[in-house]
Amino acid sequence: MKIVIVGAGAVGVHLAKLLSRDHQDCVLIDANAERLADLDSKFDIMTVVGSPTSIKILREANVDKADLFVGVTPDESQNMNACIIAHSLGAKKTVARIDNYEYLAPNLKPFFEKMGINSLIYPEVLAAIDITNGLKMSWVRQRWDVHNGALVMLGIKLRETCEILNQPLRELCGPTEPYHVVAVKRNGETLIPGGNDELRTGDLCYFMTTSEYIPYVRKFTGKEHYADVKNVIIMGGSKTAVRVGLTLPEYMNLKIIEKNEQRCERLNELLLDTDAMVIHGDGRDLGLLQEEGIQNTQAFVALTDNAETNILACLTAKRLGVRKTIAMVENLDYVEMAESLDIGTIINKKTIAASHIYQMMLDADVSNVRSLMIVDSDVAEFVAAEGSKITKKPVKDLGLPIGVTIGGLVRNNQGILVNGFTQIEPGDSVMMFCHEHNLKNLEKYFKPSTIW
């Protein structure tokens, strides 16, 4: 597959890295030669210096043969124009990064497709969705709902209060148990557990369950004493903070602390129809935090553009007694450090955006992809086609690659956990957990075929 990316910023470079790992034919275009320096030697990609909207440059990059064209420069108009030109030159699919929420209205999708833009992506909106979902459950690090909660993946940090520690999983996760353990992060290493493995204090454990058993999972992981989130403080009045403010449940009280006075005025305009309170000040100021009721706050979210500031602010909030902390960490070099400091949930816009773009590359019917950067893994929702390999044998006989496991499936809108004897049927939405593997290698199991 040939992919052309314009914009060697955070999202573009991260996406190029993913594609080079998958040995895709990838071209990265940017007008700034310094941004492209050494990228072609670090990753297996071709780089081109030039304007993303130059017809000459796009032709040099062989856009006419591109299966996917991605516009992810910081300039929304440039991304959209580049996609329109690329489509006219012959690119099969295009996706543009935007920062205008109005464009995401569902009724505008045919309008943009007619222009030659197949998909629009707004990383701040995607990050806000993750943050809001996380705030609804104070005791989880990460949550992902499939089919409106028919299946739910929960990332949970295990403490001494967990009831299932130090016992072989074969004794805990039998075929009738309403949960599966799909991955464990321990001491910097990811483990795809087997029946003889045990869970330990300090593990970050990913469970797959169905919505009705979430309280059960909460109980045996020892999280019932965690207070539900009612009061939230956000440090940093970014675009992501605005989207969180506009989508937060009504029962939550929100305060946004922003040190730029002009930005505070703008925030008040943008959040006029909400009950959010905007405070001019520095979110790292202990006196200010105490004055604003940090002792009665269940969640602290750090969304400044500085990863170090966000990490330190979350550490401070935890020291002051806040249970739920979320940090925006855009520098991937700091993600491992932030996780080792046990600061709470880590949000990275570029990995979220790259997951959504990556989904467009897959030929099989894939309705959702999520990158779990903490465990260096991906979760994808594949739909089993009629006659596909995945439907031919029970799960235990499919010969799935090492590091790949099935978390569950959705059939007729009902979540079902999978065991070795499960027979997947055509039309099932199957949750595939893939550690350090190319998701494209799993496509062959789900695409229609009559010969195996």
Protein described:
- With 452 residues, the chain is of the alpha/beta class.
- It folds into four domains: 2-121, Rossmann fold, CATH 3.40.50.720; 132-220, Alpha-Beta Plaits; 228-322, Rossmann fold (3-Layer(aba) Sandwich); 352-446, Regulator of K+ conductance, C-terminal domain (Alpha-Beta Plaits, 2-Layer Sandwich), CATH 3.30.70.
- It has helices at 10-21, 33-36, 39-42, 55-60, 76-89, 109-115, 123-135, 169-172, 214-220, 239-247, 261-270, 286-291, 307-319, 335-340, 349-359, 443-446; strands spanning 2-6, 25-30, 46-49, 68-71, 93-97, 119-121, 142-146, 151-157, 179-186, 189-191, 204-209, 231-235, 253-258, 277-280, 299-302, 324-328, 345-347, 366-372, 377-383, 404-411, 414-416, 429-435.
- The strands form four sheets. It has a six-stranded parallel β-sheet, with helices on both faces.
- The longest helix is centred in the N-terminal third of the chain and has 14 residues, at 76-89.
- The protein is globular, with a radius of gyration of 23 Å.
- The model has no long low-confidence stretch (mean pLDDT 88).
